[in-house]
């Protein structure tokens, strides 16, 4: 019997796949189960419970598959480990059930964009490819369909933690900056080690693409052996770069690949997206897609919402929704990528931010700041001296009006909050949608 803890997307996908492979399955969710997932379990005849963990039944399992949101220190997990019951992730289980190729992407920032772009490049070239993982779709559910030659999988560190035998055929590590450190003993080295699990079990025939410019990646690699064929990419000229960007094209020279891919058609903005694009293009070249096909597909890519997403223009002022930028590094990349003067909308629930890295960019590029949050004191203390045009509000419609008043034709109003959204919004998506709706409303009132 397999016990599955958590009945969300990954848990229900794992349950359905396990049942299809002939296992007895029991699903336990300590919280509530969404109606959609309850219906799927009921239709499949899979026993489940919610609001509790029946430990006696759970510990009868030969193996436990757990949701990535459940920490290893949770009592139910500790009890399983004390009984020597293996605890794995849905990704680990799904990987056993297919012979398809895995392209796996992780990093603190940029995972979703790179995953979506890689998927788009392969899909546009006509390959049988599925999208799965942290991007919101269950890998187990996709494997159950058994209709794909490639899986492009976004992996969080939480998913990587419970992967042991799983192997990526192509692994991409974008960057490592402080995040979720409470799950890793507040130690960066533990968090970095979790990210590098992406390369575990790789053979020489597998490829590990990594950001050569990232300090934490470099630090880890100088003191740890990393398996697989290493493919460094970067913007800073250095010896041994396999993939680089020359300002207008991506140049690749590694393994049997010698290629130049023009990026003029790409809609992606900013330096961080140059890294994301290098990584995705490297993966596409490795699976045999021709440069001309990649160039065409770059032009038809549309990123996920809330990631440097243009949401409107009013009187020559462009409004950009980057609500997903909930940490300082993501905002640094957004500010750095803008070529026009910026009116910056920032704020929300502070995550212990140190704004020092942003000061030079704010001084150089930001003409005004609108602080959108319940408590803006830290933002005011950090930026009011270098950007005197600073106002605050707790209303997104007012924030958009204030920003528009500061802006002139040719400027950009950039929502890039550096903070969580929970003071005024349900989540970053709600914040981003509200911003886009406020822009649309203001444009309508000016019409």
List its traits:
single chain; 447 residues; alpha/beta; Rossmann fold; UDP-N-acetylmuramoyl-L-alanine:D-glutamate ligase; Protein-Tyrosine Phosphatase, Chain A; 3 domains; nine-stranded mixed sheet; six-stranded mixed sheet; 17 helices; 20 strands; globular; cytoplasm; peptidoglycan synthesis; nucleotide-binding; tetrahydrofolylpolyglutamate synthase activity; cell shape
Fold and architecture overview:
The chain has 3 domains: 2-85, Rossmann fold (3-Layer(aba) Sandwich); 92-300, Mur-like, catalytic domain (UDP-N-acetylmuramoyl-L-alanine:D-glutamate ligase); 309-446, Protein-Tyrosine Phosphatase, Chain A (Alpha-Beta Complex). 37% of the residues lie in helices and 21% in strands. The mean pLDDT is 94. Strand 12 (243-245) and strand 13 (249-254) form a beta hairpin. Helix 1 runs parallel beside helix 7 (139-145) and helix 6 packs across helix 11. The protein is built from 17 helices and 20 strands. The chain has 447 residues and is α/β, with parallel strands linked by helices.
Give the radius of gyration: 23 Å
What share of the residues lie within helices?
Answer: 25-40%
CATH topology of the largest domain: UDP-N-acetylmuramoyl-L-alanine:D-glutamate ligase
CATH architecture of the largest domain: 3-Layer(aba) Sandwich
Counting structural domains, the number is: 3
Which class of secondary structure composition applies to the elements? alpha/beta
N- to C-terminal distance = 63 Å
Q: Number of helical segments?
A: 17
* Main β-sheet, spatial strand arrangement: 7-8-6-9-10-11-12-13-14
Could you name the ranges where pLDDT drops below 50 across 5 or more consecutive residues? none
Shape: globular
Please describe the biggest sheet, giving its number of strands, its sense, and whether it closes into a barrel. 9 strands, mixed
Domain Mur ligase C-terminal: 306-419
Domain Mur ligase central: 105-284
Subcellular location: Cytoplasm
Binding site for ATP: 107-113
């Amino acid at each position: 019997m397999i016990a599955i803890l958590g009945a969300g997307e990954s848990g229900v996908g794992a349950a359905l796949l396990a049942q299809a492979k002939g296992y007895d399955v029991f699903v336990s969710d300590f919280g509530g189960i969404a109606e959609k997932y309850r219906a799927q379990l009921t239709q499949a005849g899979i026993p489940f419970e919610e609001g509790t963990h029946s430990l006696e039944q759970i510990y009868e399992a030969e193996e436990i598959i757990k949701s990535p949101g459940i920490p290893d220190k949770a009592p139910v997990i500790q009890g399983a480990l004390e009984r020597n019951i293996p605890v794995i992730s849905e990704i680990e289980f799904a990987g056993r059930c297919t012979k398809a190729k895995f392209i796996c992407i992780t990093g603190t920032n940029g995972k979703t964009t790179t995953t979506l772009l890689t998927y788009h490049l392969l899909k546009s070239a006509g390959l049988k490819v599925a999208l799965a993982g942290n991007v919101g779709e269950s890998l187990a559910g996709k494997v159950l369909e058994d209709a794909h030659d490639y899986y492009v999988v976004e992996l969080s560190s939480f998913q990587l933690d419970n992967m042991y035998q799983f192997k990526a055929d192509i692994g991409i590590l974008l960057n490592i900056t402080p995040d979720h450190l409470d799950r890793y003993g507040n130690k960066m080295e533990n968090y970095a080690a979790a990210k590098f699990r992406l390369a575990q079990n790789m053979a020489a025939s597998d490829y590990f693409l990594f950001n050569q410019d990232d300090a934490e990646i470099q630090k880890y690699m100088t003191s740890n052996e990393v398996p697989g064929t290493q493919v460094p990419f970067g913007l800073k000229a250095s010896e041994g770069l396999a993939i680089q960007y020359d300002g207008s094209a991506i140049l690749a020279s590694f393994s049997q690949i010698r290629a130049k891919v023009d990026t003029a058609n790409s809609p992606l903005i900013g330096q961080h997206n140059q890294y994301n694009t290098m990584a995705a293009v490297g993966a596409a070249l490795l699976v045999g897609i021709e440069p001309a096909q990649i160039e065409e597909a770059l032009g038809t890519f549309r990123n996920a919402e809330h990631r440097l997403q243009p949401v409107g223009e009013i009187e020559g002022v462009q409004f950009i929704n980057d609500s997903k930028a909930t940490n300082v590094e993501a905002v640094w990349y957004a500010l750095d990528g803008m070529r026009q003067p910026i009116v910056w909308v920032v704020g929300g629930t502070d995550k212990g931010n140190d704004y020092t890295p942003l000061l030079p960019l704010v001084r150089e590029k930001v003409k005004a700041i609108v602080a959108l949050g319940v408590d803006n004191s830290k933002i005011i203390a950090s930026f009011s001296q270098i950007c005197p045009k600073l106002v605050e509000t707790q209303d997104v419609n007012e924030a958009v009006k204030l920003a528009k008043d500061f802006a002139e034709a040719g400027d950009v109003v950039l929502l890039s909050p550096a903070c969580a959204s929970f003071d005024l919004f349900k989540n970053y998506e709600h914040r981003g949608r509200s911003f886009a709706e406020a822009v649309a409303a203001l444009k309508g009132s000016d019409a």
